[in-house]
Amino acid sequence: MPVTAGSWVVKVSVSFGGRDDLGLAECVVSVAEGAVVELEYRAPTVIGLSGAIRRR
């Protein structure tokens, strides 16, 4: 997703069983002008735990 340079809060979650907030993960990403930052989200293996976001 294209964004302008700066710091951005990225939040990801999974919709399951009528809920939209399962596996919530959040991180702050700094993007330099013209840079590309690749992130990977990993959903939890157990319902109720948090997910994870990491740079690729």
Which key phrases capture this entry?
mainly beta, two-stranded antiparallel sheet, 4 strands, 57% strand, elongated
Task: Give an overview in words.
- The chain has strands at 6-16, 19-31, 39-42, 52-55.
- A two-stranded antiparallel sheet has the order 1-2. The protein has a two-stranded antiparallel ribbon with strand order 3-4.
- It is built from no helices and four strands.
- A hairpin with a 2-residue loop joins strand 1 and strand 2.
- The model has no long low-confidence stretch (mean pLDDT 93).
The gist of it:
By secondary structure, this protein is mainly beta.
Low-confidence stretches: none
% residues in beta strands: over 45%
Mean of all residue-level pLDDT scores: 93
Question: Considering DSSP H and I runs of 4 or more, what fraction of the residues is helical?
Answer: under 10%
Element string (H = helix, E = strand): EEEE
- The helix-and-strand class reads mainly beta
Number of strands: 4
Give the termini separation: 15 Å
How large, in whole angstroms, is the Cα Rg?
Answer: 13 Å
Strands ordered across the widest β-sheet? 1-2
* Total number of helices: 0
Inertia-based shape: elongated
Write the layout of secondary structure elements.
Layout lengths: L5 E11 L2 E13 L7 E4 L9 E4 L1
Antiparallel strand pairs: 1-2, 3-4
